[in-house]
């Protein structure tokens, strides 16, 4: 983990840092976060992350500090990685929250942010050698609305679904929206492959608007692969040729099984090769 952190742009030692018990992210989940993949010291797709951060902060009515712009944030992350000695594969978490004060109603809307870094075992993206098994989390549904696309610090649904998956021996769990359509997995967007065409739940189905999902859709478009955003049922997934998950830290993870159905990973392997090629170019810029 980080020996050093960045709090509001200031470098601090992790051992001497603390947050007040009045912190609104701690008390009310009044915050958002971004998880950013870095390769060889380079934060990837920072523009997409900042776009989502600005949109989410606008929805919550929190004022972003001026330092949270692309050049300064890139510089801050690079400084933190260098200070922590995290120069190859790294996970960076940027947590953004409203100033303390007030109960449910805030006393002010100024935002603060904390940046941490964690070294990863893999320097570059690599497809999982062992396919994932998953099934549906049945105990709660996710409401599809204007809050559902954000990465909020109130994540109890994902905690419960992840715990349920572990208790049942799964690698992950599918989360459904209130109408019974597939929204996402616990920390990933989901793609389905049928007849060499890609399908993924549309944003209005309740899933987080994932950065890696956007990246893969960009890559697919450049390589003449058709992607359809739509509503998907569990039965649709069971009829698919392939299923894979996407997030910025692991890139693509292929799914071997859902319930009784087993899947291949030809498209997932192809897209992972294209993703690796893209990220290597970005890291060398």
Textual characterization of the structure:
The chain is α+β, with helices and mostly antiparallel strands. The protein folds into two domains: 4-119, D-amino Acid Aminotransferase, Chain A, domain 1, CATH 3.30.470.10; 132-283, D-amino Acid Aminotransferase, Chain A, domain 2 (Alpha-Beta Barrel), CATH 3.20.10. It has helices spanning 24-28, 46-60, 70-84, 156-167, 211-222, 234-238, 266-283; strands at residues 4-7, 10-13, 31-39, 42-43, 90-98, 111-119, 132-136, 172-176, 182-185, 189-194, 197-201, 227-230, 242-247, 251-258, 261-262. Strands 7, 8, 9, 10, 11, 12, 13, 14 and 15 form a nine-stranded mixed β-sheet that branches. Strands 2-1-6-5-3-4 form a six-stranded antiparallel β-sheet. Strand 13 (242-247) and strand 14 form a beta hairpin. The longest helix is centred in the last third of the chain and has 18 residues, at 266-283. The two termini are 27 Å apart. The model has no long low-confidence stretch (mean pLDDT 96).
């Amino acid at each position: 983990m980080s020996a050093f952190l960045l709090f509001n742009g200031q470098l601090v030692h992790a051992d001497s840092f603390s947050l007040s018990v009045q912190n609104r992210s701690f008390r009310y989940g009044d915050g958002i976060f971004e998880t950013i993949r870095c390769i060889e010291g380079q934060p990837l797709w920072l523009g997409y992350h900042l776009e989502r951060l600005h949109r989410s902060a606008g929805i919550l009515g929190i004022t972003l500090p001026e330092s949270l712009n692309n050049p300064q944030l890139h510089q801050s992350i690079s400084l933190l990685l260098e200070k922590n000695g995290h120069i190859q594969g790294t996970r960076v978490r940027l947590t953004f929250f409203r100033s303390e004060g007030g109960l449910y109603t805030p006393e002010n809307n100024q935002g603060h942010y904390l940046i941490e870094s964690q070294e990863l075992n893999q320097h570059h993206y690599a497809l999982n050698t062992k396919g994932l098994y998953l099934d549906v989390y049945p105990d709660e549904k996710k409401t599809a609305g204007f809050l559902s696309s954000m990465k909020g610090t109130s994540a109890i649904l994902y905690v419960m679904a992840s715990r349920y998956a572990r208790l049942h021996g799964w690698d992950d769990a599918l989360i459904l929206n209130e109408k019974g359509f597939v929204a996402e997995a616990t920390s990933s967007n989901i793609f389905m492959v049928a007849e060499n065409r890609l399908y993924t739940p549309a944003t209005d189905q309740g899933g987080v608007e994932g950065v890696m999902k956007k990246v893969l859709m960009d890559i697919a478009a450049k390589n003449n692969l058709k992607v359809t955003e739509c509503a998907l049922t569990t039965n649709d997934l069971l009829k698919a040729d392939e299923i894979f998950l996407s997030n910025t830290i692991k890139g693509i993870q292929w799914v071997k099984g859902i319930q009784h159905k087993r899947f291949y990973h030809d498209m997932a392997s192809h897209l992972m090769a294209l993703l690796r090629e893209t990220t290597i170019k970005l890291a060398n810029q």
